[in-house]
Design a protein that fits this description.
Layout lengths: L1 E5 L8 E5 L15 E10 L2 H8 L9 E2 L3 E9 L11 E4 L2 E2 L5 H4 L10 E2 L12 E4 L3 E3 L9 H21 L7 E4 L5 H12 L3 E6 L2 H9 L4 E4 L5 H8 L5 E6 L3 H10 E9 L12 H7 L2 E4 L5 H12 L7 E6 L3 H10 L5 E5 L3
Parallel strand pairs: 11-12, 11-14, 12-13, 14-15, 15-16, 17-18
Antiparallel strand pairs: 1-2, 1-4, 3-5, 3-9, 3-18, 5-6, 6-10, 7-8
Amino acid sequence: MRALVIRATGGLDQLQQSDVPDPPGSGSRSLGPRQVRVAPRAAALNHLDLFVVRGLPHEYRFPHIMGADGAGVVDAVGSDVRSVRPGDRVMINPGIADYTCEYCRAGEQSLCRGYGILGEHFPGTMAQYVVVPEQNVAIIPTSATPLTWAEAAAFSLVTLTAWRMVVTRARVVAGETVLIWGIGGGVGLAALRIAKLKGARVIVTSSSDAKLHEAQNLGADLTLNHKTQKISQEVRALTNKRGADVVIDDVGEATWDESLRSLGRSGRLVTCGSTTGPHVSLDLRRVFWHQWSILGSTMGNDAEYREIVRLLGAGELRPIVDRVFPFTEARAAFERLERGEQLGKIAIEISS
């Protein structure tokens, strides 16, 4: 089958379209009883994909198929699969658990000891076929305006990540002030919509005035340019010196200190990423004196995924697609993401 792969880590010049062996479900290779084979119609990019190309500290099996997010048509199912059947249009939840460990049995699949993500730990979605557990597919909900393949592909990773950060970890409630860094990215945009759904007052940042203007159209209450403004000072001024109740930060080193300085008493800082680096400093006296909570968050569990899919079907949380590239121009899609030009998710059409 045709796939977008890397055969070594490095720069975007490592990306190549190549023929790779078909996954289970082809020829004599049968699917496991609870496995589903999907023929992706579209995949969507995340910053994770850039990190994978550059090299992450775990073992790769080359050629490594790229892509975490995807949506497509069920091609084949294992003998015990009951929730979907061939021909169904589905979205893929890219977080794969073993579904047997103590955390999985407790309903916390993203804490599974064997947890991994498509395109990072497992073969990804940028291929003619991808095989996942039955638990990792959801039928694309119907709505007044049907989702495009690109929108369906763009939904899962960032929406699930943002939901767990805003709702499960930070427990945002109506009337609270939430600061979100980097509104051009998929997690930031999803977090904005979820926080507004919960009735929060939302402050967003970007280095692009154009993106900030668009964020206002999407419901942001206040916008700040972190290139020209001191964010913590502005947040204090906008909250009558009180500070934000919650800060959503997936940037890491570059924003960490300003995130803490923006946080009010008993505030919660939630982090799901380290785009600019993983190492930060921390004055513990400030943590205990202000009674801050610093919360880590990764993806989400099955119940959370079912809830965001339900909300999508109800007309909420529809993803924003920045641009769709044909499969033959996949590298250009990665380059756009690397330059940070996008507002929303960049998608790649795998097949028509």
